[in-house]
Every structure is written in structure tokens, then in C-alpha cells.
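It is worth pausing here to work through a concrete case rather than discussing structure prediction in the abstract. The textbook approach is simple: state the sequence, then state the predicted structure, then interpret. We follow exactly that order.
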Amino acid sequence: MKKKKKSKQLIEFIEGLHKHIIDSPQFRRDTRTKSETDIQRELRSLIIQYLAIEYKKKGKKDCTQKANESFYWEGQEGKYGNQKRMLFASRNYPDFIIKKPYLVAIEYKKSASGSDVKRAIGQALMHTLSDEFDFVYVLFHDEDKDGKISGFQYKLEDSMESKIIKRIWDDFNVFMRFTSFKK
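Step two, the predicted structure:
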């Protein structure tokens, strides 16, 4: 596996995407009564919106069309649905794919269980370790009533969780962020 280098532009792109999503008034904070599929459906438009903004900044004509052409979601008909290789007797499908300007798999997970964070990390690692994607953005929605999962972000930088999040970014190109309905 040859790790794709992170440019300043790529870092700004992924951080910008995260900020665009969580700062949007359309982003649902309390997801406890909705399914993960429902939330993913809502995220689709926010991601396309962000891509259109990025294309507009670059002076592209018909930014919305370009954004739609650069984006794929799990279950959409098209080439990405049929091309996945088998890994451990199953196919590895991200929730969303940004094809351009960078090849980014996007995973959205929501849960009140820390075990699901570990599953999300494992799934994200498979995306880059398989060489099918250069980068992965994972957005994990903490549904714990006390925000215990996402709360580690506010602990000391030397917490084990912080070290893991940093290492999966540094070593495996997995950008993982947490949000919570507790703001």
C-alpha cells in the first residue's frame, strides 16, 4: 500500500467538508429517533452543496452538475456499485464517495456505543488499506445521553483516543471526527 500524501489543499478540503456539514442549519443534531439511512439521505445534499461551492471557487461552470458528477452514494446505480473487489468474502462499500477533486470515501455512523466507534474505524481502515480510496472521512454521531463518546475530544491531548485518532490520520489517511446532539 502506497499512502497518498496529504497536501495543504486536501487537508483544507476535508476539514472544510466537516465544518460545512456540522455547521449547517440543515444538519440534524438529535438523531436518536431517525435511522442511520435517514441521516445519510440528509447528508447527501450537504455534501453535494459543499462540492458545488468548491467547484465555484475554482471557477468551474455549472458547479452543481460538476458536484453531482463527482459524487456517489451507496446504492446509487453506476460504476462504483459493481466494481468493488472482495475482501474477506465481502465487498467494502462506503456510504458516500467523492471522486473528484480527491478520491475520498465517507462513512457516517451514529450510536450510543463506543463499540460502534471501533467498527467504524475498522471499516474506514479497510477503505485505505485495500487501496480503493486515498482518504476516508468518518463522521461519528455520539448518541450517548451524556456525550461520553465524543467527550474524549475535550480531554488532554495525550488521551489514548486522541492518539488513535491522530495515528489513523497520520498513518492511514482516515480523518475521523465526532459530533453530538449535546452542544
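Step three, interpretation. DSSP finds seven helices and seven strands in the chain. Residues 12 and 183 are 24 Å apart (CA to CA).
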